[in-house]
Amino acid sequence: MNATIDQLLHARQGDMTRELTQQPGDLGNLPSRLTPTSTTQSICGYCSTGCSLKIHLDASGQAINLTPNKDYPVNLGMACPKGWEALTPLAAADRVTTPLLRNPATGKLEPVDWPTALRAFVDNFKGIQSRHGPASLSFLSTGQIVTEEMAFLGALAKFGMGMIHVDSNTRQCMATAHVAYKQSFGFDAPPFTYADFEESDTLVFVGANPCIAHPIMWQRVKRNRHNPRIIVVDPRRSETAMQATIHLAPYPKSDIILLYGLARELIVRNKIDRSFVAEHTNRFEDFSKFVDAFTPERVTRETGISAEAQQQLADLIASGKRVSYWWTMGVNQSHQSTRTAQALINLALMTGQIGRPGTGANSITGQCNAMGSRLFGNATSLLGGYDFANAAHRSRVAEVLGIDPAVIPNEKSIAYDQILDAVDRGEIRGLWIIATNTAHSWINQRSFHEVRKKLDFLVVQDMYATTETAQMADLVLPAAAWGEKEGVFINSERRLGVARKVSRAPGTALSDFAIFQLIAQAWGCGEMFARWSSPAAAFGLMRELSRGQPCDFTGIRDYDHIEASGGLQWPFTKTDARVNTNPTTERRLFADGRFFTSDTRAIFLFDEPVPLPEPTDTTYPLLLLTGRASSAQWHTGTRTNKSAVLLKLASRAHGLEINPVDATRLGIVSGSKVTVSSRRGEATAVAFVTTIVAPGQIYMAMHSPEVNRLTFPSFDPHSRQPGYKACAVKIAPV
Ligand code: SF4
After folding, report:
1. CB 571 within 8 A of CB 552
2. Alpha-carbon gap, residue 441 to 436, rounded angstroms
3. pLDDT digits over 37-55, tens only?
4. Are residues 247 and 317 in the same domain?
5. What is the pLDDT, as a whole number, of residue 253?
6. CA-based, 20 to 30 A from 222: which of 120, 168, 583, 676?
């Protein structure tokens, strides 16, 4: 990386020369100005399903339309509304097209050129480090950028700029699954493949609403030809619960008690796979003694689930030949999330329901590249799933990257909440936020607004300058969006897929990768990152880092190899590539019962249930539950709000659900405006009176900009994931 910043800028801004896969487009009778001349494919940049989209291009290589890819093993020709509208946010009027720097005289963000922006970045951040030490800088990033960019950012910040503590918004969605698998299996290794949705005879969804949150995965369930029994555990009668064989609605966050009770019942019935437990697991006897206390009476008392319903649940599980357990944010975002996820893992292990078609303890991921972040974010784990505290691991990473091992920190990062606490204490003074909207999404939102005042310099790198977080920035760096750059996403089932460049970024916006290159150069550590010359080169480094790890994908040649194979699931070693020249499209882990722990055995992990951190009382008598409300909205709506179609489809996504019992008592009717208050703040919403929520509970969507004024900041002790799912509130008609 010997080029000057000017040369780099010139090269990046003129870069629309990548050859696209040329195939005849087929879009029927489009007007001639929209007639595509070629088609390429790309993985959708919203959720972790990882659908493939055919992107239709005009003669200049610019995307004009898209259709779902019917030849891709994930989505089989389907897409949800967000996927169909994936191109719309690129053309939004409020794209940021040039760097913006806050003018101290006017207090306003004003356009500047890139050299000025880079100078401001370096001068301010180096100034902070010289006054307060290297650890006084931090970044918060995302699960939405490609893996090459995540890895580059983590390497640049920690090895080049000297940061120690960094994190990403995957802490808010997937940290629990990461830690649960790592502790139980020895590596963060979701064992399943999407074919398992179609192969199970019994599917158990806990804290998951795939009808809304993962609609294409739900379509895979609908393709199941085994007449499956579907069990939904959710305090709310969600869209998925409405289609279930049985729906169990335990008191919020008492699911762990129900699952321990189920384990006890299966032991009592002797429905245990004794040989699997003996050969492939540790600590089952301890677990067995522990769950003995979870009698049906206790479970009823503490969850509200009747003894009959518990028996029915156990009957279904015990009689299933292929039982699969699926969880997502209802489990991950709770105060005791890791042990709850492990309660599901324990059930799969004790019954031997893992490693075979239609089985597994399966975490459904959230963001399109949360799995990439888990492997290469360089926050909790060192690049490629290595351990910061292990000197041999640091040497191995340093060797691959061609850097001095001494620049690699020997401790992992503290978590998102702890980084913000460190800002609050004045220890972290400079913060760089990349492609996430902390000011909207952080739990107990107002605490972030207070904390921001303690920062000396805030940089936000995003495709819009209009997000709540960008509006607070001292410097905004304009980033290219999905579709305007290239790289790899890893989906929920460990499948690598390629996101392609199909559109030009507006103005002087640059790919995050190019921005990191410029910053490396401006910071004075460009030489250290000479090997990171392009996303494809970075992919080569990541592939080498994976060698010998459980995620080994050294058998993947390049992006074209991934695309031609319909995506490739890790592991895909050189041996796999040699013996398996036409790899099967569906591959699962642990068929041999060997896990990634040192003795190859999985571990039963468990703890006493902990009560809700903020129970209801006479002042705040209702429990607020939060979650998704529409398949047409994504997180804080930064992109999906740009689409009139999606906004129309998600018209109820900012409403509040309340049970008729509570609504009548409070004089609330559907369509009326209400105020919701917690100890932390107040929000307004339009009420929807419905039995979907139980009496004593209300439900608001995560997409609402106000909802996190209310949420209570509790954190799982193992994963530090925030417990968004339940807090005490009161409500009144406006
Ligand atoms: S948002 Fe998710 S389900 Fe929808 S098209 Fe994209 S990847 Fe598929």
Report:
1. yes
2. 8
3. 899 999 999 999 999 999 9
4. yes
5. 95
6. 583
Residue 636 in this model has a pLDDT that exceeds 80: yes
How many Å separate Cα 218 from the centre of its chain? 18
From CA 543, how far away is CA 528, in angstroms rounded?
19
The protein residue whose alpha carbon is closest to atom 4 in ligand 1 is: 80
Q: Which residues pair with 699 in a beta bridge?
A: 625, 657
- Spacing, Cα 226 to ligand 1 middle (Å): 25
Q: Are residues 626 and 658 in the same domain?
A: yes
Residue 686's DSSP bridge partners are 673
Contact in structure between 174 and 180 (CB atoms under 8 Å): no
State residue 6's pLDDT score. 64
The tens digit of pLDDT for each residue in 91-139 reads 999 999 999 999 999 999 999 999 999 999 999 999 999 999 999 999 9
pLDDT-derived band at 357, boundaries 50, 70, 90? very high
Q: Check whether residue 573 and residue 659 sit in a common domain.
A: no
Are the CB atoms for 75 and 216 separated by under 8 Å?
yes
Tell me which H or E stretch contains 565.
Answer: none
State the amino acid at position 587 in one-letter form: R
For ligand 1, atom 8: residue with the closest CA: 51
Report, as an integer, the average pLDDT of 684-711: 95
Which residues' Cβ are closer than 6 Å to ligand 1?
44, 46-47, 49-51, 75, 79-80, 82-83, 215-216
Q: Which residue has the tokens 């417990």?
A: 723
- The range of the structural domain enclosing residue 184 comes to 175-363
Atom of ligand 1 at shortest range from CA of 47: 2
Domain boundary, last residue among 363, 379, 397 = 363
The tokens for 368 are: 């399109």
Q: Based on the structure, what is the number of domains in the chain?
A: 4
* Whether residue 354 sits in one domain with residue 234: yes
Structure confidence by residue, pLDDT tens digits, 588-620: 999 999 999 999 999 999 999 999 999 999 999
The structure tokens listed for 176 are: 């629990």
How many other C-beta atoms can be found within 10 angstroms of the C-beta atom of residue 95?
A: 22
Boundary-marking domain end, from 331, 347, 363: 363
- Bridge partners, 732 (sequence order): 675
Q: What is the pLDDT of residues 477-492, one digit of tens each?
A: 999 999 999 999 999 9
The CATH number for 688's domain is 2.40.40.20
